[in-house]
Design a protein that fits this description.
Strand content: under 5%
Largest sheet: none
Radius of gyration: 54 Å
Number of strands: 0
Helix content: over 70%
Distance between the termini: 123 Å
Shape: flat
Number of helices: 11
Order of helices and strands: HHHHHHHHHHH
């Protein structure tokens, strides 16, 4: 039986490569790898080869192994529920028999006593006493035991708890109805126990799969996995080749960038020369403007003198005009008094009219509030449209700025090219002139 439970190394190796090998290739990648070799033939599931052909256990030994494993998992489920059953015996009295209840109560007493002994041991280790000593908080003879006696008594309690657990499991095994009722209605167990049960179920699935797998299926799996490994090696070689091509393309692009950088540096030097000449021109213009400013200052001083004389004459004329217009001012004052009286009359009339207008205003304001509410509703409706409009306007603005920047850069490059061409034409002209002069001198010598 041990040889059947423990799988051979080859089976374990091939299965681990097929399942855990998913770190390198997923199931979908395996499927695409199989497509290249199955063109023209009927398509099948590439993972079907990893499933055992038989769905039922044939041999008696394998059936016994699974029976023992199922019984073990059932006992684990039952044992992990014992803390809940022992603490709430009365709650589950209707689904368990009296003898099981008595065993559960006895088991609960043993666990309580074991907890007391464990607490006493921890307290003894904390205070570091080697002999017996008084300890508070617990009752009974256990409290008077020494550390060595507590250790011995703890071992005895552990053995008793083991025997009690086995007895409870035997009673439940004899009473199948009570066992099924407990497993169905009681579900409170620690998280570690839940993890243990889950691991046991996974172990059962693995053992079931291994027992269903034959020797021929193991060899076929090994060959299939070897084919996958060979395809992966070929794929890695192709990846390296493509990486080399990518590296060559990157180097070519880097060389092209270097050439363009050299051209940019040349254009920048030409631009610096243009800036230098423009600075000199600006200095010359500033000196000319300063000279012009001095000339204008002298001219303005003469104009100021003439304007001061004009101001004096105008002040004399103003005094004469004030004397002439005092009489007309008195006439205007009398008119003002008459106008004020008439104004008071109009104010009284205005108050009367405004009372009427106020009533009319209140009516209009009520209508305005209704229309304002309608306007707010319309504004909320058109807010989304306004946001969309603003987004479109912003995109257009950004595009216009980018276009303007591109045009400015193009003008700058065009200007630089014109300057370079001008320099080159002047250089070519001078060279031709020199060649002509040399030709004339040669003819004269002859």
């Amino acid at each position: 039986m041990a040889s059947i439970v423990d799988p051979p190394p080859s089976l374990h190796h091939t299965r681990s490569e097929a399942i855990a090998g998913g770190k390198k290739k997923s199931d979908i990648e395996m499927y695409h790898a199989m497509q290249s070799t199955t063109k023209g033939s009927k398509r099948e599931d590439p993972l079907k080869i990893l499933d055992p052909s038989s769905k039922k256990l044939v041999t008696v030994e394998s059936q016994r192994i699974m029976a023992v494993l199922d019984d073990t998992i059932c006992k684990i489920r039952l044992v992990t529920l014992l803390p809940e059953l022992t603490q709430n015996t009365d709650k589950y009295a209707n689904i368990i028999s009296d003898d099981i209840q008595a065993m559960l109560k006895e088991h609960y007493k043993l666990e309580a006593l074991f907890s007391k002994v464990f607490l006493l041991q921890e307290e003894e280790e904390t205070v570091a006493h080697t002999g017996s000593a008084k300890r508070g908080g617990l009752d009974g003879d256990v409290e008077q035991m020494s550390y060595e006696s507590l250790c011995t008594y703890r071992s005895q309690l552990q053995q008793q708890i083991r025997h009690s657990t086995r007895s409870i499991v035997r009673l439940f095994s004899r009473n199948h109805s009570a066992l099924e009722a407990v497993l169905k209605h009681v579900s409170e167990r620690p998280s570690a126990a839940t993890s243990l049960i889950s691991t046991s179920n996974n172990l059962r699935s693995i053992i079931m799969e291994k027992l269903l797998t034959t020797r021929e299926e193991e060899e076929e799996r090994s060959r299939y996995i070897q084919q996958i490994i060979q395809r992966e090696v070929k794929a890695s070689v192709e990846v390296k080749r493509l990486e080399g091509l990518l590296q060559e393309a990157s180097e070519e692009r880097e060389a092209d960038l270097n050439k363009r950088n050299v051209e940019i540096k040349k254009l920048k030097s030409d631009l610096a020369q243009l800036q230098k000449s423009s600075n000199e021109t600006n200095k010359r213009i500033k000196s000319d403007s300063m000279k012009q400013e001095l000339t204008d200052t002298k001219t303005s001083d003469g104009k100021c003198d003439r304007l001061n004389q004009s101001i004096a004459q105008l002040r004399t004329q103003l005094a004469q005009a004030v004397a002439e217009h005092r009489q007309s001012e008195q006439i205007l004052r009398s008119r003002k008094i008459k106008t004020e009286s008439a104004l008071e009359t109009w104010i009284a009339k205005y108050d009367t009219d405004m009372g009427e207008r106020q009533d009319e205003y209140e009516q209009i304001e009520a209508v305005y509030k209704v229309e304002k509410q309608q306007l707010e509703d319309l504004e909320e409706r058109f807010a989304v449209l306004e946001e969309e409009y603003n987004r479109i306007i912003e995109e257009r603005r950004v595009n216009a700025e980018l276009k303007a920047e591109e045009e400015r850069r193009l003008r700058l490059l065009t200007k630089a090219a014109v300057v370079i061409q001008a320099h080159w034409r002047s250089y070519a002209t001078r060279k031709k002139l020199k060649q002509k002069k040399k030709g004339k001198k040669g003819k004269k010598g002859k």
